[in-house]
Amino acid sequence: xxxxxxxxxxxxxxxMCSLPAFAxxxxxxxxxxxxxxxxxxxxxxxxxQVYDRKVSKNWTEGDQKSSGLGEWIQVEFEGxxxxxxxxxxxxxxxxxxxxxxxxxxxxxELEFSDGSKQSFTLTDxxxxxxxxxxxxxxxxxxxxxxxxxxxxxxxxxxxxxxxxFDDVDDGVATVKSWKASSTYKAxxxxxxxxxxxxxxxxxxxxxxxSEGDGVGEWVEASFASPTQISTLNLVNGNGYNIMxxxxxxxxxxxLLTFSDGSTQTVTVKASGIPQKVSFTPVTTSxxxxxxxxxxKGKEFNDLCFSELQFAK
Length: 312
Prior knowledge:
Elements lengths: L2 H4 L21 E6 L25 E2 L11 E19 L5 H6 L2 E9 L4 E5 L6 E22 L8 E9 L8 E6 L25 E2 L10 E19 L5 H6 L2 E9 L4 E5 L7 E21 L8 E8 L1
Antiparallel strand pairs: 1-3, 2-7, 3-6, 3-7, 4-5, 4-6, 8-10, 9-14, 10-13, 10-14, 11-12, 11-13
């Protein structure tokens, strides 16, 4: 089976850093851009697609005279936010082939609402890159393309997704490392590592690689320090949309095993829509999430989680 047939295009390389959870992302209320690539074959390249939590959609600049140098995209927040970092999916993430054929940003300049600026050189990798900012209070960010990594075919430059983080404690446990019982091997669409469950994008995911239907498979999150948790934030299956979620197997009951050996069982909805599941509060340094029961998929006998985090 190929997951490309199973899913909308999704790609992300693993990052071994501790990733902020999607619950702590700063809400973007509107966006604008200096130019937009024209709609073609039903595909749009508008700026709001950089904050739709789907890396398979992107903003592409529309300057036909160059590689997008000087072009920009701007996002607005709900008032002033004290930004500390951002994550960017740099380039066209519809497939590895399209990512290599199109330009990626090399140097980007960020301009804030007070007129101050910070510049960064991005790595040329097909991953969600986490970039630390010098903390800045701002109500908007303008991202300007200063230089690019050249694609092999096209001169257009794109951003598939960007997420900004502030210094507000959202109560989500920071995951230091992930383990899994099995992981589906990487293919032309990217990898299926467990760290994808904490990257904010709902069309990247961990997928198991067992011969069975996913029952008994597990992922385990280890936290940076013992943390009290009482909520599971979950996107079950492929979160791109409900149709894609229903193609694969979906968990319906999970066994949570904590670092002291205690366990709790929770029921989850067989749906790709984000859900919050409450359980008895516990202080723990890790949680193993094992699949007890599933609902069979309409096309594929594989089980995935797009997002999975724990919170107070």
